[in-house]
DNA sequence: CGTAAATTTGAATGGATTCAAACGTGGTGG
DNA sequence: CCACCACGTTTGAATCCATTCAAATTTACG
């Protein structure tokens, strides 16, 4: 993100940037809070959550290593979601003031930010077409494929059934049922508690794209 | 969008900006095409469509007056969706080259673009929470409320059942059934063909937020 | 006026939800 | 160390909602 900065500018930026480690399930910020800082993910996962009118919550986006959390801060907005860590997660905290300063003096940072915005938009659109259409089986398969793509091997982070459900707009019970079916069919390996599960990518792809 | 430009810059920009009128159902651009231009909507509606693996199509976003169509062009990307007009629509065509030029000389345009990106993101998130959760009745009610908010009166653009369905991830038949029910209950007025329908906002709100 | 396309309605089916209970896991305190 | 509780997951059975397939109806357009 800070490519194209001069050494001086970089140093100036770095003094105000903190490196933070959150444990699993921590709230990073709450929707509506004044946006004092944005974050980049160095390790772990972050979920952006929005409350439904009915009181439940829906996961709007899942952010991965390299993604920016709270990018809306860059235009002076308050936070649009509530953000939680999933698994132990390491974040870089970048104060809004630092962004403002650099933004003016350095147009290439502006471009970097635009690229990040577009990436977020792509993720959102993907959620709309892949995670909100098709049967429960199809959605879960697509989510597992998505998660597998984050790791270099075929393991995927063991996400809770509740989180699965609120990402895919299905109940935790159906999420559980579908995963049980996948296990029976060998689409995913036996899930050791909390351990990442091995996925049968070929089989999952076949399930995800019914012809 | 071109606030904060000097008269000279504005003139220079305006010579390359075309004003176009499309009739209903026209394709503005196709997904994957090289992005030579972006557009702003002066009148009408635009739908951004993405093809599902199964061959069907899903409406990812509905753009209204003042929105930017094809904003990804500003970072040199090809089009991420296929764009169609809904109803007769008037667009401003802004060549990518014009954006590039102004982008460098004028940082305030960059900020304007970021705001637009964030707006798109907000719309996408809204689609995820409001148009992809709840029963068919609830989703249709929320869509009608959303459309009503675009007009200043309580009328809302008569969107086809097919488009309704592919916005809400329901079939055209259920969309039709739900609308029939709403008509019976007086949630929407009798729909004169192609004419905008009058909505009973209070009743729709009650349906949209089941307590 | 006649054909094509979109909308509406019906009946049967299937899939997801709901409500409930059982199970396993981890943490706490006796 | 074990009993106990809280919490997430799993499984079951009944219900409900949306889909599917089909046909009738209306609307648009040449």
Question: How would you describe this structure to a colleague?
Answer:
Two copies of one chain form a homodimer. Chain A has helices at 7-14, 96-105, 107-130, 136-150, 161-168, 172-185, 201-208, and strands at residues 18-22, 27-29, 37-51, 57-63, 68-69, 82-95, 155-156, 197-198. Chain A has 211 residues and is α+β, with helices and mostly antiparallel strands. Chain A folds into two domains: 7-126, Jelly Rolls (Sandwich); 136-208, Winged helix-like DNA-binding domain superfamily/Winged helix DNA-binding domain (Arc Repressor Mutant, subunit A), CATH 1.10.10.10. In chain A, strands 1, 2, 3, 4, 5 and 6 form a six-stranded antiparallel sheet that branches. In chain A, helix 2 (96-105) packs across helix 3 (107-130) and helix 4 (136-150) packs across helix 7 (201-208). The mean pLDDT of chain A is 90. Chain B binds a DNA duplex (30 and 30 nucleotides) through residues 135-136, 160-162, 170-174, 176-177, 179-180, 193-194.
Low-confidence blocks of residues of chain A: none
What is the C-level CATH assignment of the largest domain in chain A?
Mainly Beta
Largest interface: A-B, 39 and 40 residues
The radius of gyration over CA of chain A amounts to 19 Å
Briefly note the structural class of the backbone of chain A: alpha+beta
Strand residues, percent of chain A: 15-25%
Note the run of SSEs of chain A as H and E. Answer: HEEEEEEHHHEHHEH
């Amino acid at each position: 993100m800070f490519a194209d900065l001069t050494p001086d500018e970089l140093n100036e930026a770095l003094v105000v940037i903190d490196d933070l480690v959150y444990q699993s399930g921590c709230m990073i910020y709450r929707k509506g809070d004044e946006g004092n800082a944005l974050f980049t993910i160095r390790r772990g996962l972050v979920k952006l959550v929005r409350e439904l009118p009915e009181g439940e919550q829906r996961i709007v986006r899942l952010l991965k290593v390299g993604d920016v959390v709270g990018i809306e801060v860059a235009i002076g907005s308050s936070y649009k979601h509530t953000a939680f860590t999933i698994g132990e997660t390491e974040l870089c905290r970048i104060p809004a003031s630092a962004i403002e300063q650099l933004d003016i003096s350095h147009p290439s940072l502006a471009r970097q930010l635009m690229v990040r915005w577009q990436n977020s938009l792509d993720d959102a659109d993907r959620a709309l077409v892949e995670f909100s259409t098709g049967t429960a089986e199809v959605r879960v398969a697509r989510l597992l494929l998505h998660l597998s793509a984050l790791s270099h091997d075929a393991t995927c982070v063991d996400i809770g059934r509740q989180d699965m459900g609120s990402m895919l707009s299905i109940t935790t019970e159906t999420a559980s049922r579908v995963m049980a079916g996948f296990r029976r069919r060998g689409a995913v390996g036996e899930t050791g508690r909390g351990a990442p599960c091995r996925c049968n990518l070929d089989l999952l792809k076949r399930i995800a794209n019914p012809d």
